Amino acid sequence: MISYEAYKLIHIFGSLLLIFSLGGLCLQATDDRARVSGRGRKLLGMAHGAAVLIILVAGFGLLARLGISHWAAWPWWVWGKVGIWVLLGVTPLVIRKSVTLTSTLWLTVPILGAVAAYLAIYKPL
Fold first, then answer.
1. CB 33: neighbour CB atoms within 10 A?
2. Could you tell me the pTM of the whole model?
3. Is 92 within 8 Å of 25 (Cβ atoms)?
4. What distances in angstroms separate CA 113 from CA 37, 84, 89, one per listed residue?
5. What is the DSSP string of the chain?
């Protein structure tokens, strides 16, 4: 049985990998040479997909450790984190479709990560 602390460490690792991969995708999208050749996009996409999966699995493990098992019983802070997870999960699509938004996403992604951390630490609502 995995401990609460282990799930938390795995969840934080996934979060760092997610922000790292989104930053790399933003940088790659703004570089014309990299965009034409596509080098690195596949690796960053795989890192993003792995990060999203790691966050999901570890997050549900943490919820189980907190005794929150059914989605109908989720507190509002969990719904907020799920919403942020969905937003960060679709961000590569936004990056690919609109290169002009990469500078905005460069600031927005860490802010969303900070909001998710706030929700996890203080559990408001």
1. 8
2. 0.90
3. yes
4. 30, 8, 12
5. ---HHHHHHHHHHHHHHHHHHHHHHHHHHH-HHHHHH-TTHHHHHHHHHHHHHHHHHHHHHHHHHTT--SGGG--HHHHHHHHHHHHHHHHHHHHHH-GGGHHHHHHHHHHHHHHHHHHHHH---
The domain tally of the chain equals 1
Write out the two tokens for 38: 């596509």
Can you tell me which residue has the tokens 């408001």?
124
State how far the Cα of 86 lies from the Cα of 45, in Å rounded to an integer. 16
Question: Range of 9's domain?
Answer: 4-122
Residues 30-85 have pLDDT tens digits of: 886 666 567 788 899 999 999 999 999 999 999 999 999 887 889 999 999 999 99
Q: Could you give the angle at which helices 4-30 and 102-122 cross, rounded to 10 degrees?
A: 170
